[in-house]
Amino acid sequence: MKDLYPSRKSQEVSIIPRKDPVIHAEKGQENHSSLSKEQLESYQQNGFLMLENFFSEAEVKQMSNEIYSLADDYKNTETPEVVREPTSDEIRSIFAVHENSSYFDKVAADKRILDIVNHLLGSEVYVNQSRINYKPGFTGKEFYWHSDFETWHVEDGMPRMRAVSVSIALSDNHTYNGPLMLIPGSHQHFISCVGEAPENHYKQSLKMQEFGVPDHDSMRWLANKYGISVPTGPAGSVLLFECNTMHGSNSNITPFGRNNLFMVYNSVKNRLVEPFSGADPRPEFIAARKKLPVLG
Amino acid sequence: MKDLYPSRKSQEVSIIPRKDPVIHAEKGQENHSSLSKEQLESYQQNGFLMLENFFSEAEVKQMSNEIYSLADDYKNTETPEVVREPTSDEIRSIFAVHENSSYFDKVAADKRILDIVNHLLGSEVYVNQSRINYKPGFTGKEFYWHSDFETWHVEDGMPRMRAVSVSIALSDNHTYNGPLMLIPGSHQHFISCVGEAPENHYKQSLKMQEFGVPDHDSMRWLANKYGISVPTGPAGSVLLFECNTMHGSNSNITPFGRNNLFMVYNSVKNRLVEPFSGADPRPEFIAARKKLPVLG
């Protein structure tokens, strides 16, 4: 399959214009969505959309209970799906929760969510990745700028930009507790990252550039062109963001942690192929390529 | 001299109520300030005050030129006043700029600033510390919660809470580029930090607690009681904050760096004594105890 979005293959930085629609709904279906026309336009233009109070207080409470009870279930378990703090046994993330918890399987198939993502992706969908993030207060670290699609394309073999992330906030997101920052409009540009240099070339290079992350000049260009958005909202809010939207987060020294449930929906017409890096695929719990129950 | 605010001397955390006024203006002078009644009340209640557009665009431009030219002057100089990046020669901070630059000496004596700080401190004042901070984009690290007074008291021998910091923004402060976060009202409480434990005690301690920083429970108590404020504003804004106001900042992965000029004014009635830690005083360029030109 032709690589439409090459990255980490060259020593040159390049910016490739998006070659895919943002909203994939079929002709004639453009306005048949549970989202309003304004919401669809905002997603189209910005590459993300915040839906405040999407889940009720009671639902948030139940989800919060379930994520703590899941952490409890995994307490003494060693499994790759569970990622712990480097310096303690505290759980940071649990992957594949839609497979290993009947409760979160139901959440992943929530009709209100599916109505939206079916429309945005213009097809039936499946869950490419799901995880719970337990972000602690005081010690939460920054997460550098990235486009998820760049990673999913290079490392997982996702062919096209036809996936959407759904992040359900299970605690309040303020501007100060390390919230997600997004660059509105960045989804229209694929920032091709530089690849690992042969040793000689690396030594010759005047300017050090990290491998596999967007370069400073491209980030400056994006941020100056589009600015930076920091959507905030109470627990129960849902943030939809397009797979190529550039995002990252600063650290969090406040006492206020942030838990969220994160699910990536991919179009059944965009199933994973061999990774474009040529390397072995990452494990199934990070990127689904075998078990693909279609969610309608 | 009796230690009214003991810290780092015990293995117990404690919260000591403030024993000093917030605004020290003499009786009858309370309303004789260039600040409005509302501004004074806000400073009294919150422990900080943001003054937007305090300096004109032309003044900001000149200050910015001066800070870059000062960095240039120090380019190949090894002196303790100049703090560089751990991994490069880039300058992070230059201390004692009011002594080593006639330009910044004039800024420190700016009548508009002195009118305010003289009133807040109820006396003549001197510059206890001055520095320029060059905070880069992309790699700016977090600065954990602290009360400056706790450090100045323990390490520098500042007897009472009668000092004020003036931070002049030389670039725009947004919510997302690692701005200062403050806990409004925290200046009313002295969070006494735990001291370095004897090795045995440390091993017995169930809960690890870092030495000389506020503990998590006190920080949770403060943040839940008072919330967190993030004053933002364009270059040229001035932030006044009381020496005991709890503050810190998250990291900054955005391309937008933050430069500021930071000056600490202390009351001439609050001159430094021997450090309350019993250790040797820190160097003169961090805490003035010899050269104390009174600024009126």
Account of the 3D structure:
The structure is a homodimer of 296-residue chains. Chain A has 296 residues and is an alpha+beta fold. Chain A has eight helices and twelve strands. The first copy, chain A, has helices at 37-46, 57-73, 97-100, 102-108, 111-121, 148-156, 199-204, 216-226, and strands at 14-17, 48-51, 82-84, 91-95, 125-135, 143-146, 163-169, 180-182, 189-192, 238-242, 247-249, 258-267. In chain A, strand 3 and strand 4 form a beta hairpin. Chain A starts with 13 loop residues before the first strand and ends in a 29-residue tail after the last strand. Mean pLDDT of chain A is 91; it is low at 201-207. The A-B interface holds A 137-138, 141-142, 144-145, 174-176, 178, 181, 216, 219-220, 223-224, 228, 230, 248-256 and B 138, 141-142, 144-145, 174-176, 178, 181, 216, 219-220, 223-224, 228, 230, 248-256.
Q: Report the CATH architecture of chain A.
A: Sandwich
Q: Write down the CATH class of chain A.
A: Mainly Beta
Per the principal axes of the C-alpha atoms, what is the gross shape of chain A? globular
CATH superfamily of chain A: q2cbj1_9rhob like domain
Number of separate helices of chain A: 8
Side-by-side strand order of the widest sheet of chain A: 2-10-7-12-5-4-3
Strand content of chain A: 15-25%
- Major pleated sheet of chain A: 7 strands, antiparallel
Order of helices and strands of chain A: EHEHEEHHHEEHEEEHHEEE
Gyration radius of chain A (Cα, Å) is 19 Å
- Mean pLDDT reading of chain A: 91
* Low-pLDDT segments of chain A: 201-207
**Assembly state of the chains shown:** homodimer
Give the fraction of residues assigned to helices of chain A. Answer: 25-40%
Greatest interface (CB-CB under 8 A), with counts per chain? A-B, 27 and 26 residues
How far is it from the N-terminal to the C-terminal residue of chain A, by CA?
Answer: 27 Å
**Which structural class do you get from the secondary structure elements of chain A?**
alpha+beta
Number of domains of chain A: 1
Cofactor (chains A, B): Fe(2+)
Catalytic activity (chains A, B): L-ectoine + 2-oxoglutarate + O2 = 5-hydroxyectoine + succinate + CO2
GO molecular function, one term (chains A, B): iron ion binding
Subunit structure (chains A, B): Homodimer.
